[in-house]
Design brief:
One of its GO terms (cellular component) is MKS complex. Part of the tectonic-like complex (also named B9 complex). The chain is built from seven helices and 27 strands. A hairpin with a 2-residue loop joins strand 3 and strand 4.
Length: 653
């Protein structure tokens, strides 16, 4: 044993068993231990024996009672040498003077390195760490005792150092207070020494080392923890100067005003901030188990001037739950758990300049039962205070990216039109799909699945698919600008329609059951726009033309080994593509550029106008410093060649 306490166990019934401890020593002549008898006691010298009886085993504890501190001057009851105790013990278990078990213990215990003596009141003079190392042995932390693993500690004898000689502290803490630094000429610590190192190395004594002051703290500055608040809210007492387009709307508690929105991955994020002047209409799928309430409607919102406005909330009950319940896993019974939850929230922000004047919220409530999937709908719409028509949301005449494209039906008494794409949910069937407006500047692709029977008539199928696709385009014209007036025909461009190929005359050819050619299953919407100017530094974008075309496919009934199913599926899609064209046609080429193609970099391998291109910042093939050095070297060689080719230079030789 190497510590002042050791435990062992006596297995079996300990009733009537007498435990004793005796000190033993090896006979120098025979080298054997003397015979032990059962006449001992539970105390021998500085050792105590304690027995804790148990049911089938007894715990035997042997402990040392003496002090293990190293002797200080004029001290008693201590250890005079680091190896304090070297003794041999025998623990005996006897019953009726008959030895049942014997335990042999060899104890070699060193002094305790923890200091428990009196601390001197004399103040220790600590040198200035800027000019002198903080002691020659920083790991010497205990006065009058050996610190384990501190090989520079003077209190550690050679015998003690052998115990931890291979695991000493290294570096400055281990006593190497003046290690050679990398800039020293005699240092070989660097793995790769550059060629210019002998010219710039430092020849200095180790007494003048950059490691001086390694433990010097100096003045302590309070760290500045970055705040997650926006700068307009972190400064107390500062007036709110209003919102700009895209700024997050803040609440009274200097937090973001959040409404569930869709992320880039298509999933719904419950704590997404609402951006100023950014409309959106999203649907989030949830069930009763994962349903969570959003931000409370009693939260006051910062208007933009430092004032706070309250939300005007109206609660309504859902009448048609089929628009929100997309799937039901089981039939409802009386024991099914139901809860009154929010089905939809409609926010209308009335704004003026950089401030919010009013917030109107309409909350639609309904019962959601266990096993149903709810498509929650959240809409945010910003309406100008100066606007008399709710459809005119912004004073910006041009389109903004992400805003709905304005459409009109000039052939109807109600000129209001729509330009939509599909927004499917659940199984993706066209009968359950809803529509969403086409957003300016955002290319999109959507579709749904149409159920078709094996005995479907091809002509009726073409008409049904065409009707489904045409239901997305309830317009004849598209507004050039976002503020196009319905009364001014010049503010609108007519939609160019390319009708699908009519193949009714060729249906009879082949008479194949379950196969229909020329099905217009793909609707292609191409919108051409351009930048026509700028208003207060914001580019104004205008729609120039809109074209609608159809792509046909060959539909074939899909079945396995045998066609047991009477219905198959036909996917129909709608795609939107925005094409930007220059506002002005490019400058035509001159006759010189047409005839003399030697200087045209696009039609020749050698481009003389770009001779000095590697010396410009636009060249990224190699570092700019290398390009500049090579360019200067090339210029020097050219200058040297010019000088040497001069006639007067040859006369010097």
């Amino acid at each position: 044993m190497s510590g002042p306490r050791v435990n062992s166990f006596f297995l079996g019934n300990s009733s009537g068993v007498n435990f004793s401890i005796i000190l033993s020593s090896v006979d120098e002549e025979t080298g054997k231990l003397p015979l032990a008898n059962c006449s001992g006691s539970k105390r021998a010298g500085d050792w105590n024996l304690n027995v804790t009886p148990g049911m089938n085993a007894s715990k035997v504890t042997i402990s040392l009672t003496r002090n293990l501190q190293l002797c200080l001057p004029n001290a008693t009851d201590c250890c005079t040498t680091p190896l304090c105790v070297v003794e041999m013990l025998q623990v005996l278990a006897c019953r009726d003077s008959v030895m049942l078990a014997r335990l042999l213990i060899q104890a070699e215990i060193y002094v305790n390195s923890s200091f428990t003596g009196n601390v001197s009141e004399n103040a220790t003079i600590i040198p200035n760490q800027v000019f002198h190392p903080l002691g020659s042995c920083p790991c010497d932390l205990t006065a009058g005792a050996c610190d384990v693993r501190c090989c520079c500690d003077l209190e550690c004898t050679p015998d003690l150092k052998q115990l931890f000689n291979e695991s000493c502290f290294n570096g400055v803490f281990g006593g190497d207070v003046n290690p050679p630094f990398d800039q020293l000429c005699s240092s070989e610590s660097m793995e790769y020494i550059p060629d210019w190192f002998p010219f710039l190395c430092v020849q200095s004594s180790l007494n003048n080392t950059p490691f001086l002051g390694y433990f010097y703290h100096g003045s302590i500055s309070t760290p500045r923890v970055p705040s997650f608040k926006i700068p307009l809210q972190t400064s107390p007492g500062r007036l709110f100067t209003g919102y700009r387009q895209g700024d997050p709307i803040m609440t009274e508690e200097n937090e973001y005003f959040t409404i569930p929105q869709q992320s880039m991955a298509g999933q719904c994020v419950g704590n997404a901030p609402v951006a100023y002047l950014h409309n959106f209409d999203v649907k989030c799928l949830t069930n009763l188990a994962s349903y969570k309430e959003g931000l409370p409607h009693d939260v006051r919102v910062n208007s933009g001037t430092g004032d706070f406005i309250q939300q005007n909330v109206i609660y309504r009950a859902i009448t048609d739950m089929g628009k929100f319940i997309t799937e039901s896993e089981s039939l409802h019974t009386a024991e099914v758990l139901c809860q009154n939850v929010t089905f939809a929230e409609d926010y209308t922000f009335i704004w003026k300049d950089k401030n919010i004047e009013q917030i109107n919220v309409t909350v639609f409530l309904g019962n959601l039962c266990d096993g149903e999937i709810l498509a929650q709908r959240f809409t945010v719409k910003f309406q100008s205070l100066k606007s008399t028509n709710a459809t005119v949301l912004f004073g910006n005449p041009g389109y903004q990216v992400g805003k709905p494209v304005k459409a009109a039906n000039m052939n109807a008494s109600d000129t209001f039109g729509s330009l939509n794409i599909w927004q499917t949910a659940g199984r993706g069937l066209c009968t359950l799909a809803t529509s969403t407006p086409v957003l300016f500047g955002l290319d999109s692709f959507s579709g749904c699945v149409l159920e078709v029977g094996i005995d479907e008539d091809c002509s009726l199928l073409r008409g049904n698919v065409t009707e489904k696709l045409n239901s997305l385009i309830q317009a004849t014209h598209v507004g050039k600008r976002d503020n196009s007036s319905y009364s001014d025909v010049n503010d609108w461009v007519e939609i160019i329609r390319l009708d699908p190929f009519n193949s009714d005359t060729n249906v009879s050819s082949g008479n194949l059951k379950g196969i229909c050619p020329d099905i217009p299953a793909n609707l292609n919407i191409r919108i051409i726009f351009a930048d026509v100017g700028a208003l207060q530094g914001i580019p104004q974008q205008e729609i120039l033309a809109v074209q609608i075309s159809y792509s046909t496919v060959i539909w074939q009934f899909q079945c396995g080994l045998i066609c047991e199913n009477s219905t198959s599926f036909l996917p129909i899609t709608a795609s939107v593509q925005f094409i930007k064209v220059p506002a002005q046609p490019p400058i035509p080429m001159t006759r010189f550029q047409i005839n003399y193609t030697e200087f045209d970099c696009n039609r020749n391998d050698v481009c003389w106008p770009q001779l000095f291109y590697p010396l410009t910042r636009f060249y990224t093939g190699e570092p700019y410093s290398q390009c500049l050095a090579k360019g200067l070297l090339l210029a020097f060689l050219v200058l040297l060649a010019a000088i040497m080719s001069n006639p007067w230079f040859s006369k010097l030789w």
